């Protein structure tokens, strides 16, 4: 079998497994998948040699549109604040659509992803990587003054977590809206900097 | 039995039930509690007439220190940005201490609270109420210009959710720090307003 065929078959089986995961309410092993789709164990094992390969294929399938969104936004010629907003809102809309299409399947996939976070981490790292590029572009135009990129990254991640962590959709779906996300991005661009505004009250302390 | 005695007994049993919930890994009913502490069913039923009364007593016990923190911060004479920071950081430190003392018990209590959120809602509403007071004080000094209080409330809740939602501790504990929380509060005070900064890109659109 040539490689494109193998890839196509892998993607087809991963899509089936993802759907089946939601319907069964738990992880689908290669054995279960083989029985469900009527494909031989040998065939499944040729495509997913390791137990975790099937899970990885499902994770890839889940994040594929997210990666495409991030790459499209980065390649666009929008100004930095517009890029930030699109970077978040497009992935948020995608998650929301998935959630509303089938809330219980969505919950199962989120829980699995959290439990086997080590298989998901590379996609989280990739999102961080792209966000760092956006931060650098923004800083080149004078935004987020004085902040190290890693510092800006962690602060922005924390202030936008309501729109990136799919679990939040499950509890406060109706409170998450595009216009609030836009207000959050506007707040970041208007207010995020290395300046100590005095909230912690320790800036005036000096060693004795 | 007079009321103070009943209250004391109720609090003692709730503390026992909270501890037992963590150790058992699931909700403790009045029956289970009666068997565990060697108190008669009749006695337990006198103190917790409804099934949900015990759960409510545990929830109260959990939030008691949070309510005390919020009231103390509100009554202080700190400037608004310092109040905001203390309002969040003191409750965050309390949650973090509880989490680190016994992560699995903490996880069980969080999960129960999420599953029976209707019993927890009044405390979430109370926190919103206190936050509205803080927002009003801040606006009286010129912060968050132009925003309706409810709008400021929901935006601030979303931008600080990493420090209020106990679930986050369980996944990114080491990334949540006091100095980042202070930077977030500083960002809110420097940047949050009703001004459309253009992130959503729709401000220029007009009906055709």
Structure explained in plain terms:
Two copies of one chain form a homodimer. Chain A has 208 residues and is mainly α. Chain A has a domain at 51-191: Tetracycline Repressor, domain 2 (Orthogonal Bundle), CATH 1.10.357. The first copy, chain A, is 74% helix and 0% strand. The first copy, chain A, has helices spanning 3-24, 30-37, 41-47, 51-75, 80-101, 103-115, 121-140, 149-159, 161-164, 166-172, 178-191. Chain A is elongated. The first copy, chain A, starts with a helix and ends in a 17-residue tail after the last helix. The mean pLDDT of chain A is 92. The interface between A and B is large, with 44 and 45 residues. Chains A, B: It holds the Pfam family TetR_C_27. Chains A, B: It comes from Qipengyuania gaetbuli.
* Shape verdict of chain A: elongated
C-alpha termini separation of chain A:
74 Å
Number of strands of chain A: 0
CATH topology of the domain at 51-191 in chain A: Tetracycline Repressor, domain 2
Order of helices and strands of chain A: HHHHHHHHHHH
In the CATH hierarchy, the architecture of the domain at 51-191 in chain A is: Orthogonal Bundle
Brief rundown of the structure:
With 208 residues, chain A is mainly α. Chain A contains 11 helices and no strands. The first copy, chain A, has a domain at 51-191: Tetracycline Repressor, domain 2 (Orthogonal Bundle).
